Backbone:
């Protein structure tokens, strides 16, 4: 391939060994349409669903989904059980979309009783981060879906932390909008985020809605994707990796893929039993295990793992900065990696507690 195009351009080998093709071609369109079929199948979306491919991080997709589906005539319920729930609330506030919050205290499991106060409220949509990754709780989609069905509310699910790690099914639960992002369960580079809209939401909301935004106007994405294209230059390289990643999962089979992630998570949780840490009591996603330290050494463990072993885990922001670390199980990780991590953590914790 030799590119004489004005972007992507022919890149220098000193900079990268990647080749990014020109994308306004039937060949690239065919790849995107193929991606779309696989993605919808894996998400349990129907063929009539529309997918928006945004070159942006997950938060942009959250904001774009909210502003394309709702306006000042709506009244939303935001499930706020951590920083990602708070982000949805902030998006509503900034865009002046009326909303109320279901505030879930840390450590509490989301249950049907939490929805009781909201049955008498006028609610037209629910925003939820199904796996609230800031704390690690995987909410019970059945409870949320029940509430939305009874209220006739549009269910927007930020599935960024759960898609391709746990079972996910838009049709089964009547999920109207799904948000996903490249760097999580899809196991590829950050930079691409995706919104899947069911037919009802396209017809009753997005299609009738006028956004005061050019780049994030979903209607132009829907129109362009009829030919497998995006209105603006997409993250072409990430789009190609996305196609490869979905095919890798498809070759193995989605169920086996999910089972493998579940097994990696189970194996790690088993290995934490030899460490002076505890796991939260609320339901966890296969994508991640939050580990709680009795002593306030979590961040120091993070630094030791990074500096001594070149191992990276997720520190936690806010009030649990010194007591909680979060360990991911998605991506190219094995039981051997778990053993190595658990061993290194053991050494690190001993070093820090013997001082
Ligand atoms: C990772 C993640 C996001 C995306 O955040 P960005 O940094 O904007 O990509 C959004 N929601 C949840 C639940 C996440 O886990």
Residues:
């Amino acid at each position: 391939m030799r590119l004489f195009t004005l972007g992507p351009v022919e890149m220098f080998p000193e900079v990268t060994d990647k080749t990014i093709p020109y994308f306004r071609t039937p060949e690239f369109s065919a790849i995107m349409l193929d991606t779309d079929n696989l993605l919808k199948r894996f998400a349990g979306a129907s063929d009539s669903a529309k997918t928006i491919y945004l070159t942006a991080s997950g938060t942009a997709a959250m904001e774009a989904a909210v502003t394309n589906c709702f306006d000042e005539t709506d009244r939303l319920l935001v499930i706020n059980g951590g920083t990602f729930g708070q982000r949805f609330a902030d998006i509503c506030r900034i865009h002046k979309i009326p909303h109320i919050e279901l505030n879930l205290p840390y450590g509490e499991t989301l249950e049907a009783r939490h929805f009781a106060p909201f049955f008498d409220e006028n609610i037209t949509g629910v925003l939820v981060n199904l796996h609230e990754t800031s704390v690690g709780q995987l909410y019970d989609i059945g409870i949320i879906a029940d509430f939305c069905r009874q209220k006739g509310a549009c269910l927007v699910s930020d599935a960024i932390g759960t898609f391709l790690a746990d079972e996910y099914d838009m049709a089964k639960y009547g999920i109207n909008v799904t948000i996903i992002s490249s760097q999580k369960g899809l196991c590829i580079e950050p930079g691409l985020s995706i919104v899947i809209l069911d037919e009802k939401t396209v017809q009753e909301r997005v299609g009738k809605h006028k956004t005061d935004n050019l780049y994030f106007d979903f209607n132009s994405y829907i129109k362009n994707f009829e030919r497998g294209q995006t209105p603006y230059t997409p993250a072409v390289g990430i789009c190609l990796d996305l196609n490869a990643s979905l095919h890798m999962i498809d070759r193995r089979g989605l169920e086996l893929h999910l089972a493998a992630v579940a097994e990696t998570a189970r194996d790690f949780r088993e290995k934490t039993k030899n460490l002076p840490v505890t796991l939260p009591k609320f339901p966890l996603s296969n994508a991640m295990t939050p580990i709680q330290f009795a002593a306030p050494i979590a961040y120091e463990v993070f630094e030791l793992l990074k500096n001594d072993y070149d191992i990276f885990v997720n520190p936690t922001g806010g009030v649990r900065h010194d007591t909680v670390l979060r360990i991911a199980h998605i991506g190219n990780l094995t039981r051997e990696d778990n053993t190595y991590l658990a061993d290194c953590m053991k050494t690190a914790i001993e070093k820090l507690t013997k001082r």
